[in-house]
Write a structure and sequence with these properties.
Order of helices and strands: HHHHHHHH
Strand content: under 5%
Distance between the termini: 74 Å
CATH class of the largest domain: Mainly Alpha
Number of strands: 0
Helix content: 55-70%
Length: about 180
């Protein structure tokens, strides 16, 4: 694996101190090659593996607690971080070749002609009903009222509402059949 330069640091002005550089170099020497092989094995992408290894090493370097651990624990932590980075990269929009666009494309919308004709047919069929039947059918299906609400609004017993709704729907079905809408 080619040696990469890690320019981020924790010293004043964003520069790495000599001690930080030595720590980072030791971290790189101890873990970069096995980590790189692991990432190449996961992805099959040698160039992309360099980026993931660099990010993993930087995260380890920025986490002093992990550097104080046993070297095998540190390596296991870095392998886990690298695996998560590979997964994140695979899920990213860039990987799926999604691109941002300035404007969202127009959605194709139907012209609404069929819906208009259906509405006209239903309106004509409703007009063929008696006023009592039409009143309960419209309240039930267009306004969404319950039997009790319709009974209160029309000032009739709930049983009468149910009866009118039953016979009103039956008459509506017949009117639509006459127009050739249903069987």
């Amino acid at each position: 694996m080619p040696r990469t330069r890690l320019d981020e640091g924790s010293g004043a002005g964003g520069r790495a101190t000599r001690r930080d550089a030595v720590r980072l170099e030791a971290l790189y020497d101890a873990h970069a090659a096995p980590l790189w092989r692991y990432v190449v094995h996961l992805t099959g992408d040698r160039a992309g593996a360099d980026d993931i290894v660099q990010e993993t090493l930087l995260r380890a370097w920025r986490t002093p607690k992990i550097l104080g651990e046993d070297p095998s624990t540190t390596r296991a932590w870095m392998f886990t971080v690298a695996r998560h980075l590979v997964i994140d990269e695979a899920r990213s929009a860039h990987r799926r070749r999604e691109v941002d666009v300035a404007e969202v494309p127009e959605r194709v919308a139907g012209d609404g002609t069929d819906a208009l004709f259906e509405a006209i047919l239903v309106e004509e069929a409703l007009a063929a009903l008696s006023a009592e039947h039409r009143a309960v059918v419209v309240r039930a299906y267009y306004r969404g009222l319950s039997v009790a609400e319709m009974a209160g609004e029309l000032e009739i017993p709930p049983g009468t509402v149910k009866s009118r709704l039953h016979y009103g729907l039956r008459a509506l079905r017949l009117a639509l059949q006459e127009k050739g809408v249903t069987r």
